[in-house]
Amino acid sequence: MNLNIPASNIVTHASPDETVDDLGSVHMWLFNLDKTSGLRTAEGGIFSAEELLRTRRLKNQVDRQRFLNRCFYVRQVLGTLTAAGPKHLRFTRGPHGKPRLVVERSSGNPRLRGLRFSISHSENILLMAVAFYRQIGIDIEVVHPELDIRALLFLLSPRYGMNRFGPSPSPFGIASFYHLWTQYEALAKASGRGITQPFQKGTTDSSRWNLYSFRFRYDHKDVAGGLAIDNLVESSNNIQREERNSAA
Questions:
Q1: In the prediction, which pLDDT does 78 show?
Q2: Which candidate, 18, 23, 28, 27, places its Cα nearest to that of 140?
Q3: Dist CA 101 CA 119 (whole Å)
Q4: Do 124 and 95 meet the contact criterion of CB atoms below 8 Å apart?
Q5: Angle value at C-alpha 201, between 198 and 204, nearest 5 degrees
Q6: For position 105, what pLDDT does the model report?
Q7: What are phi and psi of 7, to 5 degrees?
Q8: What is the reported pLDDT for 99?
Q9: Model pLDDT, residue 235
Q10: In this predicted model, what pLDDT tens digit does every residue of 60-72 receive, in sequence order?
Q11: Fewer CB atoms < 10 Å away: N or C end of the chain?
Q12: Would you say the C-alpha torsion 23, 101, 80, 229 has a positive or negative sign?
């Protein structure tokens, strides 16, 4: 699996059951949500009541299957990395929806306490990124050259505004849009501010983050991606504060 990410500290994995020894690198998994039947695992009690409820609310069978498969892969990867097992994981969300693991304050498991993850899916493609003791954000989008990008550009910074693309976006303009958009969402996820919050200059310390753009082919589709990695390693005090907020 070659994601073409221009960074030396990226480790890609082929199986959700692979263990991780290098806690200083960013670890990534790529999955096809149409290839594994998560429904087969529902009887084993892997999924939470909330996940099953969200599944039932989806009207389309394909969407239901993909959502269950996504939950299955995330639980399998994180359950292996933390040695907690997939069905014993609990999740919570930050103020803007960023998911994170719920960690008991008494836990002495350094992998569980320091693990940070981000997921992104587009159509049937899921990409998952994991780092330890630093925030991370990932975003992917299946590229559609015919996409009308005009209605989406208002979410980007004025310096990435409509005049950069011209009145009729060319293929270069479309490529630029995906480049900027995936980086925008990756940074929004990593910083925890959420993609619905307008990005304005000065709201995020750009020197704190390493931002990468990448592009790859998967399942006969062209996929664009963005990755944001925090340069700051979290202290134990910050982790304990986050755990108290999660338990509140």
A1: 94
A2: 28
A3: 13
A4: no
A5: 80
A6: 56
A7: -145, 145
A8: 85
A9: 59
A10: 999 999 999 999 9
A11: C
A12: negative
- Sheet (strand 209-218) strand order: 136-142, 221-230, 209-218
Identify whether the C-beta of residue 181 lies closer than 8 Å to the C-beta of residue 142: no
Residue with tokens 């995330």: 74
Cα–Cα separations (whole angstroms), residue 127 to 88, 169, 170, 205, 244: 22, 28, 28, 26, 29
What average pLDDT does range 146-174 have in this prediction? 62
Q: Is the pLDDT of residue 108 over 70?
A: no
What is the three-class DSSP state of 9?
Answer: coil
The count of C-alpha atoms lying within 13 angstroms of the C-alpha of 104, restricted to the half-sphere facing its C-beta, is: 7
**Rounded to 5°, angle at Cα 16 from 41 and 194:** 90
- Encoded tokens for 242: 């986050």
- Both tokens of 176, joined, read 């630029």
Q: Bridge partners of 125?
A: 32, 122
Residue 142 vs residue 150, higher pLDDT: 142
Question: What DSSP line would sit under 58-107, residue for residue?
Answer: --SHHHHHHHHHHHHHHHHHHHHHHTS-GGG--EEE-TT--EEE---TT-
